[in-house]
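Format notes (please read before filing issues)

Several people have asked whether sequences and structure tokens are stored in separate files. They are not. Every record keeps both together, in the order shown below: the sequence lines, then the token lines. Line labels are part of the format and must not be stripped during preprocessing.
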Amino acid sequence: MIVQRIQCYHYNEAFKIPFHSPQANRLRADSVIVRLDCGPNGWGWGESAPRAYVTGESVASVLALWQHAFAPILFANPFDTLEDVETLLAQLETACRQNEPRAYHSALGAADLALIDVLGRGGHSEARQLFPEKYRQALRFSISVPLVDRAIVEKYLPILQARFDKPVFKVLLGTDSEANYGRMEQVRRLAGEAGEIRLEVNGKLTRTQVLKEVDRVRPFRPAAIEQPLPAGDIEGLRQFRRDSGLAVIVDESLVSLADAEVFLAQEACDIFNIKISKCGGLLRSRAIAQMAAQAGVLCHVGTHVGESELLGAAGRFLARGIPNFDCYGGGSQFLFSRILEAPNGAAATASLEAACAPLDDRHTTTPQPAFIRHASACLDLKSPC
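Then the structure lines:
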């Protein structure tokens, strides 16, 4: 089969609940949804959630890559197996590295998902055997507590706590020390003495600031901290891990296999936060998780704020198929108030999850996911052949 048409949409559905973090104040989604049409051989969906502060990408840069780099390759090269998909992705990555600026992981992730989705919808068994063993059905959830009014936290955190079995609470830290303390005090009260609380900094504070904030909230017994220092400060993270006494999770610092190799070699972290979009797709995320498993490092499967159920389904697929699973940060659907409407999150819309989830679309015939009504068409390319 071969791609005959590429359609890209800007998905920007408004949140019902705001999400403010040290990186950005977000009020709506900001993704590129991609549909690959292979004519009578079917179609597939993918998603890119570009974040300038993670991979250096934007919606505009992702669309430019699809138009100028990805389309010519996809229109010219047939694929029928997972090996063919891997070859295509390697060609796309090579083309990306020849561009300036060389920011492409999220755009590549959308291609990965869409090509695998085409195979899965076409009944190719190897697409559903990406993870031959399903290690778990139920997923331990991680619930982020953003920099929002404490009344919002008071209202919604107990609902989520009742919804998910023993969730992890990840409290974001900002520059306001009093607010940080109050938020931790509130979450410890709501989570109970047995609840696990972690901290998240997004690499936006200095080492001195972070250590000061950690010491201040230590009475509330945080168990781990995510991205305490800026991406790239490997030695700083290694020292922070030694000095703080907390497990260190890397997020913004980890976007590629090369990054994973450095962290493992330097023993600079305890947990990888793998997000399928930032890590270049499902295949590359799987490779990072396999490398981590060999080193005895756990993997938190994260989500970008506001990503759609395309990435959500792929994330759960990954989370169920790796032995070294930590927890799943699948709170994006809560921002649209959908996560309260279906058990274990909203029903999946991508066939990627069909092999391992009770809620899937294996019997559906509609080519349009419901959330496309919140997206606007911005690119429509057809093969010249």
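For reference, the curators noted about this record: Residues 37 and 252 are 33 Å apart (CA to CA). The chain is about 35% helix and 20% strand.
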